[in-house]
């Protein structure tokens, strides 16, 4: 019987990791591997196995896993420990409802503090999205665009929650955008939002953002519903 390859074998470590950087290096390495799919949903993150892989003690591994759990990239499962969290599922409406609240507040706080440089940076992400055809890169650029607009919000805890939601969406888009049949992504919503933000029109910007997120929620819900219907028909 052929044994399935261990997903952790896709992670390559080059040289010893300095002790004072261990937690951050482990966190970033695992985070990238989760986001790009090398560590698929349900993969067990065993502390001893990771400690051996990274050549460190279990303490920085445990701290890194806690950070990834706080970012909703890992879930703790009874009798199994930490596992890579699932992608957006049937709670997408709840997820987007929370994002509406959090991102609207982050945008409200950030707009007055945004500089011309911040606006220009956000514009480069839109331009890149218009040209990009790689679905993995589209998810990343979408997250970077939104964070460029929210990034000046002084409430760091709020920003962390916002980025967690964007991380979840990024993972979903990486593996489902092509199947959703969207093809090249239109950036009309993003350009309209950026134009209002550049003019410091806070209320109008928030309304545009909310409409944008609502449309995203509808697309994802319709896609998930179509998968559910297909599964039901396949089981008949």
From TrEMBL:
SMART domains in alphabetical order: FCD, HTH_GNTR
Domain HTH gntR-type: 20-87
A molecular function GO annotation: DNA-binding transcription factor activity
Organism phylogeny: Bacteria, Pseudomonadati, Pseudomonadota, Gammaproteobacteria, Pseudomonadales
CDD domains cross-referenced by the UniProt entry: WHTH_GntR (cd07377)
Keywords in alphabetical order: DNA-binding, Transcription, Transcription regulation
Gene3D superfamilies: GntR ligand-binding domain-like, Winged helix-like DNA-binding domain superfamily/Winged helix DNA-binding domain
Protein name: GntR family transcriptional regulator
Annotated organism of origin: Pseudomonas karstica
Matching Pfam families: FCD (PF07729), GntR (PF00392)
InterPro entries: GntR_C, TF_FadR/GntR_C, Tscrpt_reg_HTH_GntR, WH-like_DNA-bd_sf, WH_DNA-bd_sf
